[in-house]
Design a protein that fits this description.
The structure is a homodimer. Chain A is α/β, with parallel strands linked by helices. Chain A has helices at residues 3-8, 12-23, 27-36, 56-71, 91-104, 121-137, 152-158, 200-214, 225-228, 232-244, 252-256, 272-289, 291-319, 322-333, 339-353, and strands at 44-50, 78-84, 110-116, 142-148, 163-168, 189-192, 261-263. In chain A, strand 2 (78-84), helix 5 and strand 3 (110-116) form a beta-alpha-beta unit. Chain A is globular, with a radius of gyration of 23 Å. The two termini of chain A are 39 Å apart. At the A-B interface, helix 3, helix 8, helix 13, helix 14 and helix 15 of A face helix 3, helix 8, helix 13, helix 14 and helix 15 of B.
Chain lengths: 354, 354
Amino acid sequence: MTLAEEVLQGSRLALARLITQVENGTAQGRQALDELFPYTGKAHLVGVTGAPGTGKSSLVNQIALNYRKLAGGQEKRVAIVAVDPTSPFTGGAILGDRVRMRDLSGDPGVFIRSMASRGSLGGLAAATSGVVQAMDAAGFDMILIETVGAGQAEVEIARLAHTTLVVEAPGLGDDIQAIKAGILEIADLLVINKADRPGVETTERALLSMLQLAHPSPHVFHDNNFKSGHSLADFQAAEEALIRSGEKSSRTIEALWIPPILRTVATEGTGVIELLVEIERHCQFLVETGELQRRQRARLKSELDLLLRETLVSRWRSQVSESHYETALESLVKREISPWRAAEILVDHSSGAV
Amino acid sequence: MTLAEEVLQGSRLALARLITQVENGTAQGRQALDELFPYTGKAHLVGVTGAPGTGKSSLVNQIALNYRKLAGGQEKRVAIVAVDPTSPFTGGAILGDRVRMRDLSGDPGVFIRSMASRGSLGGLAAATSGVVQAMDAAGFDMILIETVGAGQAEVEIARLAHTTLVVEAPGLGDDIQAIKAGILEIADLLVINKADRPGVETTERALLSMLQLAHPSPHVFHDNNFKSGHSLADFQAAEEALIRSGEKSSRTIEALWIPPILRTVATEGTGVIELLVEIERHCQFLVETGELQRRQRARLKSELDLLLRETLVSRWRSQVSESHYETALESLVKREISPWRAAEILVDHSSGAV
């Protein structure tokens, strides 16, 4: 039986081994993912990102625990992949795992894996994508992708998700962490965790004013909608209003989902059920509007384009020696040749060598 | 005489024509830039970025005006390239130009050009780099690169600069604009423009607390240093302290320059001379620490790598038909083949066609 077949038959050990192969970028791992790819595309991918200190890990645990409880007889299974692009070590990740083990261990419907940055951040995003595909093929219904929100790499990783939660907490650097690296632009749901702490209103106001900047449309935006969230009927009514007013456009779908702001206290489990309801509502919204299909297609296209680039560059690198590259770079630094000429010389060299 | 030769002889008309060629990505433009490249690398490139409403354009005008005044008999010339990645139209840019014309027109030591996004943002960054090279070869001593600070593209454009100014203003969305898309991470100087408005202390406090997060070293960081800025002697003393304490590392250079916070009122010219002094001080700092050379080399290397990728991809595209690409993408979306397989099939196809 191949590794891929073992994964499809539900072997946790095989899944763990496959993920290690994917992390190490082995040919065997890649071959297994190739074999598994037709079985992917069924899981609901939920990204969870936010600054350190927001309590993301506890929140992810609680989401997993409550999802399993709500699933009941339905046997919905959940996988967690925790990615830390800021650390080349697995220290933090392992610590997080220990806490998780206490809450979630022994439940065969839960699978947890931590990943830390080993080399390039781009490589981490690609590896995470592979790990998520493995979990998806293995039949997990919800996959939680947890990242530390601090830069472009996290945004890349979060883009894997269908539904992205951005987690805030009161009193972190004057609410200024909130907006780092355009993280708000990718939020489908905004969660204020540790909502029993002072300053929660300030955080909520800051998020509200950011949302107002992002969603200025008077048809769909009303302050008092935020706390309760919208119903699908609200969206349909808003869409009809847009059509009547002649403003319906390709941006309508985006305009129709305004991220609701939710409050949670993950350590006590408060607000987690409500959060799961909103996650489910967002999933339903994506399906009913056709946005899910559009996002999947766009994501696969950008993954293809990225891999095309990587394949072309790596084939080129295998044909050109390091010393040729260094020689061209030196000429460039001395301004003897232009960047375009240097690139052309290097590419022509490899073509000639074929 | 070639276009490049005319530019080198100081023809403003030739420069304007070359820039249009560069913007349109013509072969003639590229050839001229190739010819001009050995004459580049002399100008001081100053990036100016910030959210809409901060008064960036007025500030850039004032910097240019005062730089010309201070230059006096020395005949230092200044060029401005204003880039608006948010707009596919030149409307805003043209408006800005009209204001500029009033202040700066008729001065042969000033050259102004606006650029708006025409296609991809990546393309705009590359075009801006070409325009700056043309101005540099034409002998302008300072080149001001103005961008609207709103995302990754602006960061890319700002990376062209040796010295980057991030412009803020009081009362813009609770000082939250400040931190969008990691713009603070690229700041060498922080400018609070419109500093006669209420709320200037709040803005300054927000910037200070951001800086404290970014520069936690007790050796070099003292609150009261910010308003006055540091002298080079301060940096040297701080560096020696670091060496004594055994903390000296590759991050020392970065740690030694803490962005000073300056207040300006561009419409009245207040604080602009002080700002120019700080720009000059930063330039001196870059030269004396060897950081200038390191930045130039790193920038040229990343430009080469980018152009290598583009050259490889565009050669590949010329060998593979659109329908082949679409067929592979469709198989991928139907999950018949994996992204890796699709990329390999497409790359192998083009190799076979060579």
